[in-house]
Amino acid sequence: MSKHKNPAPTVDVLIELRDRPGELVFIERAHDPIGLALPGGFIDEGEWAADAAVREMKEETGLDVELVELFHVYSDPARDQRRHTMSVVFIGRATGTPVGGDDAARAIVCNPDALPQPLVFDHALIVADYLAYKRRGVRPPPRR
Amino acid sequence: MSKHKNPAPTVDVLIELRDRPGELVFIERAHDPIGLALPGGFIDEGEWAADAAVREMKEETGLDVELVELFHVYSDPARDQRRHTMSVVFIGRATGTPVGGDDAARAIVCNPDALPQPLVFDHALIVADYLAYKRRGVRPPPRR
Q1: Interface residues of chain A, partner chain B, Cβ below 8 Å
Q2: Rounded CA gap, A75 and A55, in Å?
Q3: What are the tens digits of pLDDT across the range B30-41?
Q4: Quick one: which of A60, A105, A142, B101 could link to B67 by a disulfide (CB 3.0–4.6 Å)?
């Protein structure tokens, strides 16, 4: 087995709300880096990526999210200045109003074209890729 | 940052050869678990997932693989009996004849419906998902 150090695998979810078409759920991060982000977190050893996504969405937004599809994987070594993380990003759907919890100081629902401030990490790229996919059916290139 | 233990991220590639349509590249693993597998390996810290995929393909098959698309992520905690690994699986294309190297005792090119022995790990599931995608355009479900 590898003795190498590896990037830490995480999950993030693009949550579409059934009664708020065209908008997504974002969180205000409670910890450094402070700022707006997609909800997400680390995958635990022994946990499926999809289960980590559902768990983190419940913790950070209070929502019971149904995962619709795997969207993409983002692994740029510079995407998180703290250490190398690799995010498995899902598209999910939920009903109701998100409420920030755990690492999220607050949850907001917003049209991704009208965010009140920039997103942290590479989440602006993820959202741009998502909009391109939704509008033109184009998936992101393999290296992301 | 998380102090949790995380699954170790890996890559595997479904390599289509330009002059052998309908076939894929497999390797005979040189190390435990011995058996047929898709070529792949661990992502190093500081390395993009896509770069790890291209590097591992070169090491294990000698091929210069062009990644076509991200296919899916496989994270079943039981998929590797040694420890929990999570594989980012790409579809790639190459020209030429693969030659086994590094962790691969031998490389073979084979129609995935006519493999001479079972695949190790969850690679039979990955190949079945790939065939369903190629034949019917259906992507695997999020939880894989």
Answers
A1: 1-2, 4-9, 41-51, 53, 67-70, 72-73, 75-77, 82-84, 86, 88, 90, 139-140, 142-144
A2: 21
A3: 888 999 999 999
A4: A142
**CB within 8 A of A100, min separation 6: which ones?**
A27, A28, A30, A60, A61, A106, A107
Q: How far apart are CA A114 and CA B29, in angstroms?
A: 51
Please report how many Cα atoms fall inside a 13 Å half-sphere around the Cα of residue B82, on the Cβ side.
Answer: 12
Closest CA to B84 of B93, B75, B73: B75
d(CA B53, CA B92): 9
- Encoded amino acid at A114, one letter: A
Give B26's strand partners: B108
CA distances from B85 to A95, A98, B114 (A): 32, 32, 27
pTM of the prediction? 0.96
